[in-house]
Amino acid sequence: MAFLAIHSINSYPAHWHLNAGLEIITLLLIPYRYWGALLVGEAIPNAYEAWLCLADFGSTWVALRMIPEMLLCMPVVWLYRSKLNIFPTKHLVNIKALLTCVLIISIVLSAYSCALVSTLHITNGPYRHSPMLAGIYLAGNYAGLLTLVPCALIVRLDFRKGRFHERLKEIWSSSKLLADASGLALPVIAFMAWIAGKSEMTQATVIEMAMLIPAAWLTVRHGWRAAALAGTLIIICNGLLQPDLPTTSNVVEITFALCLAVSGLYALGAKVTAQNLRNERERQGVEAEQQMVRQNLAVTERRMRRAAEKLEFVAGSLHIANNRVLDHMRRIVPNIESHAFYKQAMVAHEQVYQLAESLHPSAWRDRGVPAALNETVARALDEAGIAYSCHIGGRGFTLLESSVMTAIYRTACEAITHVTSHLTCSRVRLEVRAGETNKHRWAVIRVDGLMDHDDVARSVYYSEQRRDLGVKLGAHLASIEEMRSQAQVFGGQVHVRATSKHLRVTALLHSQAAEVRQQKASAPLRLWVN
């Protein structure tokens, strides 16, 4: 039925041989066990069409014409499917093998058509046996194959059993390809074809070749699916523009040039898709590495928190034990000077407590990151003689995941340590702002240090406390480059801006929640090139 339908539409094989495309599609996609049924299915209508021409062309022509073209194509398709690996996997097509297979089948069918014409012994007219007639048949067969085969393979790859509705949703959601194809490239190609149909031969040739420009643009942007859409439309427009039986070499040359150019677009689209897939895999690999680093940071932070809690417990136990020892010593030696021993015990207790605070502040554990930024950091800077102010704002700060909150505190401490390492820094302002853009949450940390050259004496007076500021805040990164590397783990970046009056460190961090990562992931791509 499909053979008869196409034959009724396309009755001139030399013009645009769509029957060849139908035959190769069925041979490529249908299992070997049904090839016999396919052969019978084509042989019956083919014999009927040939028998109707018995009175016009003779028995020799009819005998050759009754040979189904599918029978001639079967050895070539079997060779490429079984030996030359045209389908490396179930959902992968080797574009090089596909194009060479299409070309060889075109040559075989063209030789068959020329053999049919040679039996008629025509000496004049368009059907006389000549190299031009062979070129016409070759161009028509190649154009017919390129019209149907790539689109059929798209359907075979994308609309597998059980994924039809899912794939339709993916295509509809991929608005970029849909918008570029239906809104720009395909209408431009159709408009140029309409202009070519109204123009003279020379102008029409130039316009037809210019149809490749929007097709190439669409291919470079979206890969081989775009090449299949635009290339098929170009070949269809060319087939509709050409006469039923080309009689000039220009028509054959145009058709050949367009077919070769479209083949090149398929190869280019395959390379673009392969590169996109490679980039997608690299992106997923980077995200996996970042996720692993974030998990390691979270595990390290939990260990530091447990260690800080244990140290606070040890500090309390040490304080109680020292008090008991001093009480016993007073009973044994009433006149002992216990003030010095008590002072040493308090110093030891304070050192242990400060160590616990540097590992993980108690304000953070009790009341969250905002409390640690407002209290713990403020106390450390106050002990170093540096004025401090903190502002936390924005939308969705409390909705950030715990790893991002940890990164905010650690990044702020690192930036403050870097800014206060300059003796001229007399004031620090910390601003933390959270927000959400296109359902992607982010946080910005900005540390602004005021440089006052007239207050260096005060900084020298507090030099020891300023030197220990990094230890109190738990800062361990030695340079801005290390801070940038840590920010990249959260998909962010760090900027430093220095003037004579200010030193500003700005960090951007992105939330990497599971739902956000799922939204960022692009549609799966299938490689169409070996």
TrEMBL record:
The keyword Membrane applies. It comes from the Bacteria. It is a multi-pass membrane protein. It is found in: Cell membrane. Residues 14-273 form the MASE1 domain. InterPro entries: MASE1. It holds the Pfam family MASE1. Keywords: Cell membrane, Membrane, Transmembrane, Transmembrane helix. The chain crosses the membrane at residues 61-80, 92-112, 132-157, 177-195. The keyword Transmembrane helix applies. Its main location: membrane. This is MASE1 domain-containing protein. It comes from Dyella flava.
